[in-house]
Design a protein that fits this description.
Pfam families: Glyco_transf_49 (PF13896), Glyco_transf_8 (PF01501). The chain is α/β, with parallel strands linked by helices and 756 residues long. The chain contains 26 helices and 27 strands.
């Protein structure tokens, strides 16, 4: 304790020195700058122009004086740097070998000061300095439901991770949709010293469904009331956040405020910054009871252990039942009930300074929370208008939010210095696999890509689809990058069935895609398209990983494995469903081939029938796909036979065959070793053949490849000899793996390759 006070006295003395030295210096300079009662300029040129008493000696004195001024200013700057370092190293009351002190300018619970926006310090209370252990885990609870809220949570988490210096444990109360999305995201994000647990929000509905709620958050907006019952019994304290929060500081500073709770204080809340609970917003406005302006529940500090002892569950239920007799429903969800409880029991609340929850809804007093925007710690977009809210600093707030929205999440995969992460089996296996690779191998980067874990955000937009009851439904599967977005609307017009797309994008590109999709009437009218974002990492386009992600997240029994550059014929969806029945795909191993054609024209009058397509083929408007550059890829389809075929016909596998097929959803995945350009589909078709799939060409189906600029990967393949050498090496290794897996039957692939 004595050491802390001594440290503070040293810090105070240094601060006074910093203030006094420049003041004394400038008094001295100011006094010395007068001659005969007249001010003398420090500039030699100005003196020479205006003073007849100018001499060489006085010139030297003034130059010397200027040099001294610069020296003093430099000393001041050095002293400031030392002070900032000293502040960072200020001694703390240690609870262990590794502790950290956050010098907090926090509220003391004095409501008058807080309501005036004045931050009350506690610098005189040496023994009450809040402490957060360096490696102490900070617990954060968030209620999240649905597709949009899942996107919001990611931005919130990014802002927390960006500033944090402590291990984090997220407790996510989520519905099945949010859990699927966020569980996959965190598993593939692999952020060190971050743990995530999920709690089934749907199981909690019965706890709060009896409360009528008018708020847009619906039933999930009431679930913070049951956290004492939902979260683990051994969890003593937790920070509870809304999904529309953005952090501008280390969350450990907020965690440290728990040390300031006294007596029966169990809730840490910021005063509501609107006039809602004052009841004067409009005529006959009748809000729920609240203490003064009431409190906002976007940021809550909960002392769970004390709340349980106080029988919080019984307390809020009795209050809600009593108030609902007159109010009939809540308007602001859980916030109304929290405030009603606090009105009856004001001793429960510790009032946080308002910079811990700057509420950006219209007509708030949020601007009184800070003297400068740099003072802000937490921004709360608690208006339905979100980024369109009115505030004189809204541009600053919006830019801060957009910074985290588009921030590269891969950069947040940093280890915490001095804080060992919990053992993670997936991370350990990944490190083991990577350590077995030879970094001197010229194909090292190709091999490494196979083990790269790409952060993945499933169902980036709202998805809603129930497969057809007759078990014939087919999902179109494809992958794309930013330069192919223009194909989405056209594909949606050609294919009315469900679609599963994997998009390879950066964080910033994902937001561009979101704006593009939300601005498209065609895309917004379709709820049966699943958009799965696979975030960019590494130098190769992970084409087969993308295909696997899109394949894995379909809800239909069959899938059409296509590419984004192809437009299916009108009516193909219904035709394929009929073919599924005709060829008994449910009980046989068949791969139905959709013949592929191409046009070199950017504007094409799309053929509406097979007869029209054949006519265009004869006129040279259309060609069989890759006829000019890669005939082997689709030659086994036997286009000559297809011209006159009226029934499905079987074809045999040949070397380099890569048709577009319809298969059952249980077909093998694509091989991830093939990235960029070359052999990615060929290897998959080879595996289907090895597993004895029968290739059947559909006589009245077709798809047309639309022209586009060459991809970056095909350019690398054509221009880089080492790229081609590595692709050949990977091919040989794949064929060897096939021989090991399928034995004698796989020898034909080696023979076919040698003969081709």
């Amino acid at each position: 304790m004595l050491g802390i006070c001594r440290g503070r006295r040293k810090f105070l003395a240094a601060s006074l020195s910093l203030l006094c030295i420049p003041a004394i210096t400038w008094i001295y300079l100011f006094a010395g700058s007068f001659e005969d009662g007249k001010p003398v300029s420090l500039s030699p040129l100005e003196s020479q122009a205006h003073s007849p008493r100018y001499t060489a000696s006085s010139q030297r004195e003034r130059e010397s004086l200027e040099v001294r001024v610069r020296e003093v200013e430099e000393e001041n700057r050095a002293l400031r740097r030392q002070l900032s370092l000293a502040q960072g190293r200020a001694p703390a009351h240690r609870r262990g070998n590794h502790s950290k002190t956050y010098s907090m300018e926090e509220g003391t619970g004095d409501s008058e000061n807080l309501r005036a926006g004045i931050v009350a310090g506690n610098s005189s209370e040496c023994g009450q300095q809040p402490v957060v252990e360096k490696c102490e885990t900070i617990h954060v609870a968030i209620v999240c439901a649905g597709y949009n809220a899942s996107r919001d949570v990611v931005t919130l988490v990014k802002s927390v991770l960006f500033h944090r210096r402590n291990p984090l444990h997220f407790h996510l109360i989520a519905d099945s949709i949010a859990e699927q999305i966020l569980a996959t995201l965190f598993q593939t994000w692999m952020v060190p010293a971050v743990r995530v647990d999920f709690y089934n929000a749907d199981e909690l509905k019965s706890e709060v469904s009896w409360i009528p709620n008018k708020h847009y958050s619906g039933i999930y907006g009431l679930m913070k009331l049951v956290l004492t019952k939902t979260l683990p019994a051994n969890l003593e304290r937790v920070i509870v956040l809304d999904t529309d929060i953005t952090f501008a500081t280390d969350i450990a500073e907020l965690w440290a405020v728990f040390h300031k709770f006294k007596g029966q204080q169990v809730l840490g809340l910021v005063e509501n910054q609107s006039d809602w609970y004052l009841g004067n917003l409009w005529k006959n406005h009748r809000p729920w009871p609240a203490l003064g302006r009431g409190y906002n529940t976007g940021v809550i500090l909960l002392l769970l252990d004390k709340l349980r002892k106080m029988k919080w569950e019984q307390m809020w239920r009795l209050t809600a039942e009593r108030e609902l007799m007159g109010m009939l429903s809540t308007s602001l969800a859980d916030q109304d009930i929290f405030n009603a409880v606090i009105k009856q029991n004001p001793f429960l609340v510790y009032q946080l300074p308002c910079f811990w929850n700057v509420q950006l809804s219209d007509h708030t007093r949020s601007e009184q929370c800070y003297r400068d925007v740099s003072d802000l710690k937490v921004i709360h977009w608690n208006s339905p208008k979100k980024l369109r809210v009115k505030n004189k600093h809204v541009e600053f707030f919006r830019n801060l939010y957009l910074t985290f929205l588009e921030y590269d999440g891969n950069l947040l995969r940093r280890e915490l210095f001095g804080c060992p992460s919990e053992a993670d089996v997936n991370s350990e296996n990944l490190q083991k696999q990577l350590s077995e690779l030879d970094e001197d191998d010229l194909c090292y980067e190709f091999r490494r890509e196979r083990f790269t874990v790409h952060r993945t955000h499933l169902y980036f937009l709202h998805y809603e689809y129930e497969p057809a009851a007759d078990s014939t439904d087919v999902t179109l599967v494809a992958q794309l990058s930013m330069d192919r977005l223009q194909m989405l609307e056209a594909i949606c017009k050609h294919w009315e069935g469900p679609i599963s797309l994997a998009l390879y994008l950066s964080d910033a590109e994902a937001q561009q895609f979101l704006r593009y999709a939300q601005g498209s009437e065609v895309l917004m009218s379709r709820h049966n398209v699943g958009y799965h974002i696979v975030y960019k990492e590494g130098q190769f386009y992970p084409v087969n990983l993308l295909r696997n992600v899109a394949m894995k997240h379909i809800s239909t029994p069959y899938m059409f494995l296509s590419d984004i550059d192809f437009l299916p014929m009108y009516g193909l969806y219904e035709y394929l469903r009929k073919s599924v029945i005709q060829l008994d795909l449910a009980n046989t191993k068949k791969a139905m081939i959709v013949p592929a054609f191409e046009t070199l024209r950017y504007r094409l009058s799309f053929p509406k029938s097979k007869a029209e397509l054949l006519s265009m083929l004869d006129m040279g408007t259309l060609f069989t796909f890759r006829y000019h550059v890669w005939t082997k890829g689709h030659a086994p389809t036997n286009f000559a036979k297809w011209r006159t075929a009226t029934t499905p016909y079987r074809v045999e596998w040949e070397a380099d065959f890569e048709p577009y097929v319809v298969v059952r959803r249980d077909c093998p995945e694509y091989d991830r070793r093939f990235v960029g350009f070359g052999w990615n589909k060929v290897a998959h078709i080879m595996e289907l053949d090895a597993q004895e799939y029968e290739f059947t060409v559909l006589p009245n189906a077709y798809m047309i490849h639309m022209p586009h600029a060459p991809s970056f990967d095909i350019t690398k393949f054509r221009s880089n000899k080492q790229y081609r050498i590595c692709l050949k090496t990977l091919k040989e290794e794949f064929q060897q793996d096939m021989s090991r897996r399928y034995g004698f039957a796989a020898l034909k692939y080696l023979t076919a390759e040698n003969n081709s």
